[in-house]
Amino acid sequence: MIQTDIAILGAGPGGASTALKLSHLGLPCVLIDKADFPRDKVCGDAISGKVTTLLHRLDPAIMARFHGMSIQSDVWGMRFYAPNGKRVEVPFPIKSEAGHAPGYVSKRIDFDQFLIDEVRRRPDIQLHLNKEISSFKRQETGWRLQTADGDFTVNCRLLVVADGAHSRFSRTIAGLEKDTAHHAAALRAYYRNVGDLSERGFIELHFIHDITPGYFWIFPLPDGMANVGLGMRSDILAKKGLNLKETLRWIIEKHPTISERFKDAELIGKVHGFGLPLGSKPRPISGDHYVLVGDAGHLVDPITGEGIGNACYSGFIAAELAEKCVQENDFSAARLQAYDIRVARVLGSEMALSYRLQKLLAYPRVVNFMARVVAGNQRMMQVLSRMYADFDLRLELARPWFWIKMFFTGKR
Question: What positions does the domain Digeranylgeranylglycerophospholipid reductase catalytic occupy (predicted)?
Fold first, then answer.
């Protein structure tokens, strides 16, 4: 039996980030995952500047090791395709620490293994893989976690739940049930030799008429590979009666412009589906002696589908609060409410804005109008470039009057 102040369930980006932050704060922890690593994780594979900024500030040597590898492609901007086919390229001039790219695309099998290797560098993190917890028992001083065979038991005062979108603890104990209006279904496939990929490392978002407010994506990877996928909000998907896999196949094989780019492309492996619990609905993400991190806390961005950045950010917040809880010997639900409050302040406003934009992008004519405003409007292009790091500018994008003003400014 293991006795610890802090146990983390799930060793993906959220759990690994929590453990690394705790270690740098001088707090030992136990990190548990049901899988062995390296292991694949179905995802869009995009890594935002949130992740790299947090890791660099934690220890610049972590990102130095990351940049010394060849598991990532740099992201310097985005290509947006409106339903009418209009293409708008938005560069990201904002550089991260040490002048590196503001974002990356890296297969999760590689990036998650990188984080596990970083965890293994820290002697105060006990890493236990291949341990599937089947029992959660509430005790006076915290939680008891146990495998089905009873051979592995952990008693902890604080449980950090970071075991992803299908977290049993989140669903059955914390009460975060799936809500199709705040959930997305997505598919991911790996292709080689997709045509006309950006030489400047731009990722692509295609807003196709029949799947808005969802989108089709192409994210370039190293070695001529690309992460290709399609996602849509679950309730809208059901309302439209679409088969996501058939829709993805149609786009790749028959879409008037996209199919040409796939004529020489090769599908590597299978098409895999995954669910995204969106952060567009406020939910309680803590309770007596526990907090929910990342996808387990339904913290996926409602418009981009990004989960890695919010998982790492919420993990850092959980670790900083855990330090105070240990010092105060207080892991009560009342004390841990501070976690909900800070996550809402730091991430909640972003996700609320994304939800507003998601609803705006549900109308193809609106997306076409927005693309028309941006095309050839240098002032608008500068605004979009700066919005990557400026929340106040992103807030403007959800206001119709902003687009009307920019339209007339552009005409002049």
Answer: 193-263
Query: 181-277 adopts what CATH topology?
Result: D-Amino Acid Oxidase; Chain A, domain 2 (3.30.9)
Pairing of strands 77-81, 29-32: unpaired
Token couple for 403: 């687009």
Pair type for strands 290-292 and 153-161: parallel
What the block records as the tokens of 374 is 């941006």
What angle is formed at CA 236 by the lines to CA 189 and CA 274, rounded to 5 degrees? 30
pLDDT tens-digit map of 348-402: 888 887 788 788 777 788 778 777 777 666 665 666 655 555 555 556 665 665 6
| 11 residue type, one letter | A
Whether the bond into 38 is cis, omega within 30 of 0: yes
- Other residues' Cβ atoms within 10 Å of the Cβ of residue 129: 14
Length of the chain: 412
| CATH homologous superfamily, domain 2-178+279-357 | FAD/NAD(P)-binding domain (3.50.50.60)
In angstroms, the CA 201 to CA 219 distance is: 9
Strands 133-139 and 142-147: antiparallel
Give 280: exposed, middle or buried? Use CB within 10 Å, 0-12, 13-18, 19+. Answer: buried
Instruction: Provide the whole-model pTM.
Output: 0.92
Report the distance separating Cα 253 and Cα 194, nearest Å. 12
Decide the pairing of beta strands 2-9 and 153-161.
parallel
Contact 294, 12 (CB under 8 A): yes
